[in-house]
Amino acid sequence: MAAHFDTEYQRLEASYSDSPPGEENLLVHVPDGNKLPWHHIENLDLFFQRVYNLHQKNGFTCMLLGEVFELVQLLFVVGFTVFLANCVDYDILFANKFVNHTDSSKVTLPDAFLPVDVCSASIRDNVAVMFVLMISGVFWLHRLIKFIYNVCCYWEIRSFYTNALKMSMAELPYFTWQEVQARIVEIQKEHQICIHKKELTELDIYHRILRFKNYMVAMVNKSLLPVHFRPPLLGESVFYTRGLKYNFELIFFWGPGSLFESEWSLKPQYKRGGNRLELADKLASRILWIGIANLLLCPVVLVWQILYAFFSYTEVIKREPGSLGARCWSLYGRCYLRHFNELDHELMSRLSKGYKASSRYMNCFLSPLLTVVAKNVAFFAGSLLAVLIALTIYDEDVLAVEHVLSSITLLGVCITVCRSFIPDKHLVYCPEQLLRVILAHIHYMPDHWQGNAHRYETRDQFSQLFQYKAVFILEELISPLVTPFILIFSLRRKSLEIIDFFRNFTVEVVGVGDTCSFAQMDIRQHGHPAWMSEGKTEASIYQQAEDGKTELSLMHFAITNPQWQPPTETTHFISQLKERVQREATGDRHTLTSLSGSEPRSLIANFLAGPPSLASLHLGQNGSLTNHGPVGVSDGASALRSLSVSSMRGSCSSAHRSAGHASSASRAMPGSSTDARTASSGSSVWEGQLTSLVLSEYASTEMSIHALYIHELHKQQSGGELSRHTWHRQDSDDSSDSVTEEGGSGGGNPNPRNPIPRSHTFPITTPISSPGPIPSSNSGPNPDRGTTPGQEVAPLQSNSQRRYGGNTDSVGPGGRVVRSARVPMGGWTEEGRGGQHPETVPEEGSEDDMPPNIHKVT
Amino acid sequence: MNCRSEALEVSVEGRQVDEAMLALLHTILLHRSTGKFHYKKEGTYSIGTVGTQDIDCDFIDFSFVRVSSDELDRAIRKAVGEFKDAMGNGTDGMGQISLEFYQKKKSRWPFSDECIPWEVWSIKVNVVNLANEQERQICREKVGEKLGEKVINIVEVINRHEYLPKMPTQSEVDNVFDTSLKDVQPYLYKINFQITDTLGTSVSTTMRRLIKDTLAL
User: Fold this and answer.
1) Is residue B126 within a helix (H) or strand (E), and if so which, with residue range?
2) How many CB atoms are located within 10 Å of the residue B74 CB?
3) Which protein family is named in the record (chain B) (predicted)?
């Protein structure tokens, strides 16, 4: 019977004889296992996160010390509070009761303390105090165990830094993350940290570190998370606190029963559209339970928040009372403004650069009424204070009079508060221009702000991103009370949308696992036609990222990681954009004037102010520092240079441009030789000292220009017509009308002319989308799916990724690849129907029968 | 997970299950075994020989090659036998058997040694019921052909130049290879199986994850 079958295995006949084990003629091997143990790390997500954390926390010792102090601080907070509440005799302290000392009349601090036994008895009797103590004890123990666990883990990372990356902990703070990353990429070639690929890319590392953050950014971008509310008195407001964020992450990513089965993979049932309703129900009930748990734990968390806020902020407020009037970027703002694939430190440095301009912008809007009142209050309070101080100077016994010291303190605080309402005398009212400077740093902004910078609505909306520190603290304090209700009433209704979101926007990337597809920054799949990707994007409205997020994120990533080699289409997009920016900026400077409105110089000067002499600094280095992007960086360099110089010296931009290239191409035009010389002499001083830090500063400037340019272009393109995405897309959006557009299926749809309805009100009933009868119970072509994935997946995407959800490709009966159009199921419009589920989803049955996408692209 | 995974799927009749499984598992293990290592003083080693042997199947028109090690064969047969018992006899059923290659990583004191898988082969089995003898005959040939294709697939996958654990030094050889067998030395492997109803994470893994997550907060 075996004779029928033709295998390549053949029995070796008699000629075969085992060679005798003579020691001398054996083949001898040398083991290579003695190297560093950094190959094949099990959980790369955690590993990279830890590597990043250790870098951000400036090395092992700093981190260790910080954590130890945090633990001690916790103990102190709890202990001190209990002590103050129970062990101090306030009557003695306030001198309402006299101490019967014999020798002296002085009251000392120890006199005010109660004896130990009285104190401990009062603590034991007080149930509430015991409760608080127990809770914090459990909490502290948890932190302690976590700390010990962390120390063990980070010790490994430390040895990874020292042994594999060859960076000692002492010099770690002076390496940029980009340098660390470059070394990791280097290490991969040698040690194979990740076993799926020979080489890691920067994007892989970012994806792993930011896997869940990218999802959150995308969810905020698509207005999926319930953070916008309209409470009766306050008007439109945003409520997004750390507690709420923690709960979201608990529900989606890592809590028990979450959507992800491990750090790197979504549970398979969520990748199939078949039983989405059932899954949505399940999710809704989970959210309900977590909400109830939050409600039950609310008193504990509330007590904790109050204690924590009290001890962390009282000192600050006492030291500089004005800090409450200061502003900070809200948690929501950080999510809204974050690019896809942007690490924490990149975001923070960007936002910090925008801080000054932002607070100046907000200060433009001081209420005139308040100003008048504040001026007068400050006057009266000031005169009282002056008198009191003068009297004190004259005779310090004044201080001994009851309440004099406290009134001096109060008056001081009062004046400081008032002063924050009085605008600076020399302030120039120019909101439009300020907003532009802000935009250069924060990169995102709803369309209708432009031209309306002076309006109060704009200011209010901006204040949602940039809130008072006091408001921030207040929100954190009430968060434990509000969070359960948000979970139970708002988030639960969105469960179907969430299920749809995770199915439609999750791709599996080889060597990375399941990531948010937005984070791939693929213009074709998620570009927005109104944001430069007209004609390149094939995304339906549901798939487009709002506010040009895909495009801007792509630019940002390409600029911060010049070594990164994007897929060809993307490269094309980037180089095209850079070319345009450069041309417009250097050539007729037409955009420049339109970019910066009335005062170009101040704008340019403003964002050139950071790296002062970068234009000359950068010369001559671009070739050696960046392998991939001499084009990109030098383009930007010359653009910048011409910008800065031309604004100083008038017009010789072409000369400067050639000066920029002269260093690399040694080709100087006749009129520009002097400029070239000065430029290169400037650079020669710095040659060799140009660190990547300078480069990164430089990159941020370049990114600013690109962001401004993209926004400007977007404004011109939309041409004043109302953009479809308004600030905070409201629940019933205009996107709910069924938009019919050309079938935007992935490259190679055999039938692209078939119009496909793109909305949920018109579910998926296209003839080509039914994947045909799939034999799954017999030995049809189905078993092949597992072993020959290449044949069906390869044409799908060039960068070997797989999309779940709408894009269900399968091998039809004839062996032909039948690909259903990529029409995502579900969408925005769900909530318009008040959460009721649509009756039928045509594909449900067939999708259910399909085997789960167990195979990976290899 | 930082691990390659390959999936195979076969549809067989009830009585063919163990032979089909044996054929596939042995084929994989044939390529993932080496001869015994004999370490010398200077940190070098020589590799012993591995015998192979042809096995003919009774219920399938198929024969396969396996490492001629009875111990290994016994271990595999035991696992496959358990799998078949768990599947139950006769009626339609689905199951999955997975062969996982891993390496051990020594950890510091508070933690136990980690087993880090680097390659997982999961073989899905559909058991079909056949009505009469004629269908059985057809099935016999068909399954034989299918298995032949699978074997070629396996060889293709194995021939790709992909990650394999580095060759260990003498002290570490237990972390990479299963040295308990006398005549052959396969990479460390585990065989697990699941029957369709229980597909999904077990309670213990969930608990373990929960604890780990709380620690890693």
Assistant:
1) strand B114-128
2) 10
3) Belongs to the ATG101 family.
pTM here? 0.74
Q: What is the pLDDT of residues B86-127, one digit of tens each?
A: 887 655 678 889 999 998 887 666 667 778 888 999 999 888
Residue B210's pLDDT is 60
Cβ(A663)–Cβ(A683) below 8 Å = yes
Neighbours of A591 (CB within 10 A): 19
Q: Which helix or strand (DSSP H or E) is residue A152 part of?
A: helix A127-159
Best probe of the B interface among A8, A40, A43, by most B CBs < 10 A, is A40
Helices (H) and strands (E) in chain A, counts: 34, 13
More confident residue, B94 or A749: B94
Q: Where are the beta strands (DSSP E) in A319-360?
A: 327-329
Q: Chain B contact for A40, CB < 8 A? A: yes
Cα–Cα dist A766/A439, whole Å: 43
Identify the pLDDT of residue A129: 84
Q: Flag if A37 and B105 touch (Cβ within 8 Å).
A: yes
Residues from chain B contacting residue A788 (CB–CB below 8 Å): 153
Q: How far apart are CA A95 and CA A549, in angstroms?
A: 64
Angle between helices B70-87 and B17-31 (to 10 degrees): 140
Q: Report how far residue A387's alpha carbon sits from residue A393's, in angstroms, rounded to the nearest whole number.
A: 10
- CA distance, residue B66 to nearest chain A CA (Å): 11
Distance of alpha carbon A176 from its chain centroid, rounded? 19
The residue ranges of chain B whose pLDDT is under 50 are 198-201, 217
Query: Cα A837 vs. chain centroid, distance in angstroms?
Result: 32
Residues A754-797 pLDDT 10s: 333 333 333 333 333 333 343 333 333 333 333 333 333 333 33
Q: Which of B167, B160, B136 is nearest to B47 (CA)?
A: B167
pLDDT at A326: 81
Sequence ranges of the domains in chain B: 4-207
Q: Among residues 99-138 of chain B, which lie with CB inside 8 Å of chain A?
A: 103, 105, 108, 110-111, 114, 116, 118, 122, 124, 126, 128
> In a 3-state reduction of DSSP, which class is residue B137?
helix
Contacts of A237 (CB under 8 A, 6+ apart): A228, A229, A230, A231, A464
Average pLDDT, chain A: 71
Chain A residues within an 8 Å CB radius of B194: none
Alpha-carbon gap, residue B28 to B153, rounded angstroms: 10
Q: What pLDDT is attached to residue B43? A: 75
Q: For residues A155 and A60, is the Cβ–Cβ distance under 8 A?
A: yes
Judging contacts by C-beta atoms under 8 Å, the chain B residues touching residue A854 are 7, 122
Shortest distance between the Cα of B216 and any Cα of chain A, in A, equals 7
Residues 6+ apart with CB under 8 A from A29: B44, B45, B46, B47, B167
Rg (CA), chain A: 32
CA angle A366, A370, A374 (to 5 degrees): 110
* Calpha distance A160→A155 (Å, rounded): 9
Contact by Cβ (8 Å): B167, A29: yes
Q: How far apart are alpha carbons A809 and A829 in whole angstroms?
A: 26
pLDDT band at A102 (very low <50, low <70, confident <90, very high): low
Alpha-carbon span B39 to B177, nearest angstrom: 14
Residue type, A360: R
**Tokens describing residue B37:** 């290592």
Kindly state whether B8 is in contact with chain A, defined as any CB-CB distance less than 8 angstroms: yes
Q: Angle at CA A652, nearest 5°, toward A650 and A658?
A: 150
pLDDT digits (tens, 9 = 90+) for A445-485: 888 888 888 888 898 899 999 988 888 888 999 999 999 99
Note whether A779 contacts B210, CB cutoff 8 Å.
no
Tokens of A197: 């690929």
